[in-house]
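#random but structural
TW: two for the price of one
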Amino acid sequence: MGAPRPGRVAVVLKGYPRLSETFIAQEIAALERHGLEILIVSLRFPTDRRTHPVHAEIRAPRLYLPEYLYREPLRVLRAWWRVRRWPAYRQVRALWLKDLARDPTPNRGRRFGQALVLASELPPDVRQLHVHFLHTPASVTRYAAALRGIPWTASAHAKDIWTTPDWEKREKLQACEWLVTCTAANFTHLAALAPQGRVELVYHGLDLARFPPAPVSLRARDGTSPDDPVVVLSVGRLVEKKGVDVLLRALALLPRTLHWRFVQVGGGPLRRVLESQARALGIADRVSWRGALTQDALLREYRAADIFALASRVASDGDRDGLPNVLMEAQSQELPCVASNISGIPELVEPGVTGLLVAPESAEDLAQALQSLIADPSQRRALGQAGRARVTARFGLESNVVRLAAKFGLPAAPAAVARAAVG
């Protein structure tokens, strides 16, 4: 548990705000309700044109670092001119050069320049840095914290764990004060690289106030009516690790006599490729591509669907999901979930109890699971109800954020937990 310290915590993010990182925004909002004073530090300016309602609730001011050093050379130069005289500068510069020798990329140079700006411009009342993601943001945070002589802590999630070399993870885990991660699979991997007790499992949790129970629905569709097809929903960025191509192949394997419609929420670089695949498979007329949605619009999609499917896989670069929050969101609306048996997903989806698990990359297994759910509304209802019960009992935001708040040295209970009603 962290000891209470006066002052703010600077939360370092790769980008803020982001539609795809609702779990971070809801955590920041919850920590503010617990009394934590926060400064948000972002390595990039936002690229999403819309935000979620939770972003409007966050009071923390923001500090944006130069995303590319050449765009703000005077700012970087001023930071270096100031920081180079600090006692820790030579030591941190030597650390960065050691990292650069093992990873001689422009990105590594940019991390050091951003760290100089962060260390130089960090308000004096900031007593701790806390970073989300163990790769690029943690490098900036580590250098800046060492320059300022203050502790840093971290939250590790998915891609940042599995695409970062072990030597780098090991050294960062030695340097940080503590780290939390969001799945048991992540915890096992990181704890083996870290000093005893340095890593702790803390689930993101779902803010159930934003995902109240769905209106009562019989959801009796069974795929026999062309006028009332079963709606299969998936939510995720259109990138390799989400396996949307596998899901499309699975849908194409379903019997032609079965009536369904597929809705994909989320944008990403593979959109055109996947649209072309759907056309080649002959199912394009049954597929709707929604793009990125705000949380309130996404909630409407969950409530209009009958089945939630997520075909996660390990990508070619090692990237993979942790425990996707979209699965918790879907289960909060009593949607039966079909998902891949990888990473932290089995911690949430218990086969035959709260959902169905299939082998990653297997379109055949996925098609079989989908076919069974499409044709059986009573099975869907049972899995959906059990899923919501599990999310409520184990994966609520507040029960998990209390543990995180304690690590920041906050009281066990917030001074005030009243909040505005969420529409």
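TW: number two ↓
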Amino acid sequence: MILALCGSNRAGSTNHLLLAAAARLLADVDEFRVYDGVATLPHFSPDDDDAPPASVVALRALVGQAAAVLISTPEYAHGIPGSLKNALDWLVSTTVLDQKPVVVWSASPTGGEFVHPALIEVLRTMSGNVLVGASLQIAGPRRLFDLHGHLTDAATEAQLADSLEALRRTLGVAERADLHS
């Protein structure tokens, strides 16, 4: 399974639309799942880390089961959106991201010039295998979609496809077989 996390809580955000485009591009993958609970996780507290709430246990299990993680996020105030950072904070004390392939798509008006390196640093600190060459910074994403939320920019679609193909190559033949079973 490829697990996707969205850094935006806004319905219809361009980051959600990018993940929908990824799902279409990965139509041959049996399990591409967008985790929709980022905004509803309780605030992280180290006091709750040893006996976390059920929603956190479920998130940790999903990330642990995933062959790879794809994160698509906007930039808020030059940083990682709070709810996404909170979700990652709940994963810090675990090994669920240890050497797991992670691709980051930063989509915001400026292309996420601040969030992109900040998120990569956080993920590397958590021992994620960030595929920097497959990660993307997408400037002005709103203009890439029509009124119905369909990606209309061929160059961006090609970039997304290349990014996802690099992720699949990293997973290798054995992992790819797991994705199709």
